[in-house]
Amino acid sequence: MLRKEQRLALYMEGNLTTDPGKMGFGILRYSENPIACVIDSQHAGRRVEEVIQTPGSAPVVATVEEAAAAGAEVFVLGIAPPGGLVPPAWWPVIDRAVELGLSVVNGLHDLLGPRYPTLQAGQWVWDVRLEPEGLGVATGKAAALANRRVLMIGTDMAVGKMTAGLELWREAKRRGLRASFVATGQIGIVLTGSGVPLDAVRVDFAGGAIEREVLARAGDELVIVEGQGALCHPGSTSTLPLLRGACPTHLVLCHRAGQTHLRRLKEIAIPPLKPYMRLYEELASTCGTFPTPITVGVALNTSHLGEDEARDAVEQVERETGLPTTDPVRNGVESLLGAITTNDA
């Protein structure tokens, strides 16, 4: 499986500047693996940091052959298309990567392992979206844990729940806390090496899968659970298993500055933030059956704004919610972590 010294080629054809490239963006920002190159013929010949804002640095090439020549050892599907299936145009590229001896990281629903039963020595295919073995139904046992459990919640898909959670985890470890991160999507799993691909788990076992991960971290002071989807999104079914499995003590709301409607369902409005937070808290509690978590702050995605606009947006959301608000990438998460560690549910 993936070793930290292996050099990656991120396949982001046509999506280096678009939201579906979030798998590649996450790896560029957080992976400990060296990045040999990014594959996107639209920007070939440039460096990735010349095209997008990222702390990662790598050349952009046009083909998988160039990636192999650049020393890549692992071909990573860095795009998450709607529906999570491999587009037909990708199959020849993936076949060629395997033919050239590259291992493959696949975060999509289509499994690649069965397609390549014979591989070269040391070559492998990692299908990330596989349901873990030995799952059961949730029992609510996480509610009895003595630690702090933070669930990242959102107003839409792809608003920065994973990014905010990873930034909180990094800051907590920097402060010397015993902290862990429960990845629930393909990007987080690839970055941390463990977790639950929640959208690949049968619904009866989804809560139990999260609960098992949280209970395994009972000795940690702080457990940060990556959120998925949004309660107001009709295509999202992840809220209840996350709430029941983790039994969170704290919530952090993730929102894109200025967004009023779902990005892919523009007829659906995002609710006002304060009652939306209360709805999450009340659903978690279910009239007192379970402990009520507290929403301690807002992680605001301002990546589409200039510095002055971003500052104004943060101040506006703070006024609206009365809670600490920050862009985790631009401004850090110190205020959020402080609210988590000083407020008891």
Q: Termini separation (Å)? A: 40 Å
Task: Work out the radius of gyration.
Answer: 20 Å
Shape call: globular
Structural class: alpha/beta
How many helix segments?
12
Residue share in helices?
A: 25-40%
The major sheet is characterized as:
6 strands, parallel
Order of neighbouring strands in the sheet with most strands: 3-2-1-4-5-6
Write the layout of secondary structure elements.
Blueprint: E1 8-11, H1 22-30, E2 35-39, H2 48-51, E3 60-61, H3 64-69, E4 74-77, H4 91-99, E5 103-106, E6 125-127, E7 148-154, H5 161-174, E8 179-182, H6 186-192, H7 203-215, E9 222-225, H8 239-246, E10 250-256, H9 273-285, E11 294-301, H10 307-321, E12 325-326, H11 328-331, H12 334-342
Parallel strand pairs: 1-2, 1-4, 2-3, 4-5, 5-6, 7-9, 7-10, 8-9, 10-11, 11-12
Helix pairs in contact: 1-6, 7-8
Give a structural overview.
The chain is of the alpha/beta class and 345 residues long. The protein is 32% helix and 16% strand. It has helices spanning 22-30, 48-51, 64-69, 91-99, 161-174, 186-192, 203-215, 239-246, 273-285, 307-321, 328-331, 334-342, and strands at residues 8-11, 35-39, 60-61, 74-77, 103-106, 125-127, 148-154, 179-182, 222-225, 250-256, 294-301, 325-326. The protein has a 6-stranded parallel beta sheet, with helices on both faces. It has a 6-stranded parallel beta sheet with strand order 8-9-7-10-11-12, sandwiched between helices. Strand 11 (294-301), helix 10 and strand 12 (325-326) form a beta-alpha-beta unit. Helix 1 runs parallel beside helix 6 and helix 7 (203-215) packs parallel to helix 8. The longest helix is centred in the C-terminal third of the chain and has 15 residues, at 307-321. The chain starts with 7 loop residues before the first strand and ends with a helix.
